Amino acid sequence: MQTKRMTFSSRWLPYALLAPQVLITLVFFVWPASQALWQSMLREDPFGLRSTFVWFRNFERLFADPHYLDAMKTTAIFSVATTFLAMAVSLLFAVMVNRMLRSRDWYTTLLVWPYAVAPAIAGVLWWFMFNTSVGIVPYMLQGFGYDWNHRLDGTDAMILVVIAAAWKQISYNFLFFLAGLQSIPQSLIEAASIDGAGRIKRFWTIVFPLLSPTTFFLMVVNVVYAMFDTFGVIHATTEGGPARATNILVYKVFRDGFVGGNLGSSAAQSVILMAIVIVLTVIQFRWIERRVNY
Amino acid sequence: MARIVMDDLHKVYPGGVKAVTGISLDIADGEMIVLVGPSGCGKSTLLRMVAGLETITGGTLSIGDRVVNTLEPADRDIAMVFQNYALYPHMTVYNNLAYGLRNQGVAKPEIERRVQEAAAMLQIGDYLQRKPRALSGGQRQRVAMGRALVREPSAFLFDEPLSNLDAKLRVQMRVEIRQLQKRLGTTSLYVTHDQLEALTLADRLVVLNAGRIEQVGTPMELYQRPETLFVAGFIGSPAMNMIEMGYLRDRGAAPSTLPAGTDLVGMRPDDMLLSAPAEPHLSLSGRVMLLEPAGAESHIYVSLDGNDQPITVRIPGLPTMQEGAAITLHVPLGALHPFNTASGRRVSG
């Protein structure tokens, strides 16, 4: 691609044109980020009256804190499980809807609805459905002899937040997978069926590899969603409990900072999260994207 | 190697559209059959029915003495070359060729042998490790052929395989396909809308129109003795001239040799001569509207006296007359094609 070189009559015009963008970035990104960086090196006294500059002490404490390392593990489990569930279910839906001819548009419209539900509302919905005393799901599970209690059992709680978080993302993934499936030429599928591949084999050897650009894109979006955008779901269902079993990093930032009042540690955690996002993005785009292009 | 028999095949789509209405055709083992017709005539649908990509809604289809109506495409022992090649973009050329064999459970050394053999035959040996996007149109075409070859099927199906190539490559690939098919002796069904391709490739040519067979025969039979008005107009380029019997009568040029019931007379552009032949002929006079030199031959568009329909004449070399000049055309009586417009058929006699 050739870059065009523009010439402006006034020296200041290009700066003036760039200014709004730069200003927005400064106010809404650079300034808060630098505040977080600064605050992550401060330590407040118990009454919030004074703060002391402590260099990297907040970070040192965090990495020595077993709760923090646990939260990292929880986050990893949560985001991998959520991403996998959300993508697997939506791919299944997309494959099924793609085979329909007449009612395809209806199903697509209906399947997109959950995306319009606010995360907190969705959380409350799941809270009711899984409520140990009035919820329908524990009641039914009891019929199978399973005693569901996400308030006491950490695994139950994790399953609940994964389902609730994944449910939210399925609509979005579904739309992309459906578009991806429709962009695969029908003649490839036909050629494969003449080449003796059955339905399942065709899917795994032809359709799935050809979907890989879509899959890759959705993986990035879903991991980022699960790690950073699921605060509402967790806050409305388990509040990180029981015993920190669903206390993911983003939720811990909120708990430590706004509930626990430890602003310095909370800021340090935000900085670490920021670093994680940067690393994730670089890894995914530099390393994985190279493998999905053909 | 197989004989393909179509017995009264029908295809009605769920919406009620009839694409194929009662086609019967017996294809001998090793024969190259070309299906030709205008778009929407059902030729591709028929091919896809043979392949198993479209369900058959009536009649029976057998390949090699086995009724295959309800068999999956994979179980019909056929291979198909698609119009857009349909190469798997994420696989190397080698894997594209090997894919079908692996699905059949062919042993690895045997796959290797067959792929190398096909690659050598099609001269694509150097590209085996490339992906399809790194190949030119002609190379992709060869890979698509190779994918059909390695399967060693009992029949090849070609769905307009050359329509995406440029003119020069098309001629070259046409020759190669014909040579390959003759060498392997595999029964082939070839769909095209290009009549030159049809005439040059076919052992027998099938002209389809509106889901029915108009005429079946060798290319020469169809060219020299079209049985219907449709075939007469479809085969041959430039198209056959049609002159009404009434016009000939008015001019006193109606030959008495034509059978009763003839009301339209067809004349090939190359049978319209500028100088009178020795054999019995009829003569028509007119005026030159347009001269169209086309290299080795030229086309002369003539408007006959008292008739506004232009007539095409094909002559070898360059024309010597001027546009607007008076001209007399001579047509040997043996070269006239008598038709009846009501039945749309040739009048025999």
TrEMBL record, chain A:
It is found in: Cell inner membrane; Cell membrane. GO terms for biological process: transmembrane transport. The chain crosses the membrane at residues 12-31, 76-98, 110-130, 157-181, 202-228, 267-288. Residues 72-284 form the ABC transmembrane type-1 domain. SUPFAM superfamilies: MetI-like (SSF161098). CDD domains: TM_PBP2. Pfam families: BPD_transp_1. PROSITE patterns: ABC_TM1. It is a multi-pass membrane protein. It comes from the Bacteria. Belongs to the binding-protein-dependent transport system permease family. The complex is composed of two ATP-binding proteins (UgpC), two transmembrane proteins (UgpA and UgpE) and a solute-binding protein (UgpB). PANTHER family: BLL4140 PROTEIN, SN-GLYCEROL-3-PHOSPHATE TRANSPORT SYSTEM PERMEASE PROTEIN UGPA. This is sn-glycerol-3-phosphate transport system permease protein UgpA. It comes from Pararhodobacter marinus.
UniProtKB/TrEMBL annotation, chain B:
Coiled coil: none annotated. It comes from the Bacteria. The keyword Lyase does not apply. InterPro entries: AAA+_ATPase, ABC_transporter-like_ATP-bd, ABC_transporter-like_CS, ABC_transpr_MalK-like, ABC_transpr_MalK/UgpC-like, Mo/tungstate-bd_C_term_dom, NA-bd_OB-fold, P-loop_NTPase. GO terms for biological process: carbohydrate transport; glycerol-3-phosphate transmembrane transport; glycerophosphodiester transmembrane transport. Gene3D superfamilies: 2.40.50.100, Nucleic acid-binding proteins, P-loop containing nucleotide triphosphate hydrolases. CDD domains: ABC_MalK_N. GO terms for molecular function: ABC-type transporter activity; ATP binding; ATP hydrolysis activity. Keywords: ATP-binding, Cell inner membrane, Cell membrane, Membrane, Nucleotide-binding, Sugar transport, Translocase, Transport. SMART domains: AAA. SUPFAM superfamilies: MOP-like, P-loop containing nucleoside triphosphate hydrolases. One of its GO terms (cellular component) is ATP-binding cassette (ABC) transporter complex, substrate-binding subunit-containing. Pfam families: ABC_tran, TOBE_2. The keyword Chloroplast does not apply. Residues 4-235 form the ABC transporter domain. Belongs to the ABC transporter superfamily. This is sn-glycerol-3-phosphate ABC transporter ATP-binding protein UgpC.
